[in-house]
Amino acid sequence: MKIVADLMESEDPKKLLRALKKLFPDANFTVGPSFIEGESDLEEFWTLVDKAKIGPTIEELIDANGFVDLNKIAALAGKVAIDQGSPIGKIRVFFSK
Fold first, then answer.
1. Are 82 and 57 in contact (CB under 8 A)?
2. Domain count of the chain?
3. Is the pLDDT of residue 96 over 80?
4. Range(s) of the domain holding residue 14
């Protein structure tokens, strides 16, 4: 799966990388001017989704869109939560169909 996280001007890229690594520990990330992107396998992600008990909701979003947007603040705590339009941006996870 591909991961793309919004990187705001006021945001510390190292802090966002730490958050991303909590959700996707096997991913290799690249830092761009306004984003951080990487590739990861699904295993750790689904373990965290199961812990959060949001599997059916995530699956519906993936089926409808091919991606899901995750909340960056939750990621800092190592938790998976669906983003609801946070002003600090999102972590978008793309799934191959």
1. yes
2. 1
3. no
4. 2-94
User: Considering the entire predicted model, what is its pTM?
Assistant: 0.90
As a whole number of angstroms, the longest Cα–Cα distance in the chain is: 35
Q: Could you tell me the two tokens for 48?
A: 């965290």
**Alpha helices, H only, the chain:** 13-23, 43-52, 55-65, 72-76
HSE (CB half, 13 Å, CA atoms) of 29?
A: 25
pLDDT at 44 over 90: no
The model's pLDDT over 62-81, given as tens digits with 9 standing for 90+, comes to 989 999 999 999 999 999 99
Side-chain-facing half-sphere of 66: CA atoms under 13 Å? 3
Percentage of the chain beyond pLDDT 90 is 80
In the block, tokens 């909590």 appear at: 22
- CATH code, domain carrying 62: 3.30.1440.10
Helix, strand or coil, per DSSP, at residue 27:
coil
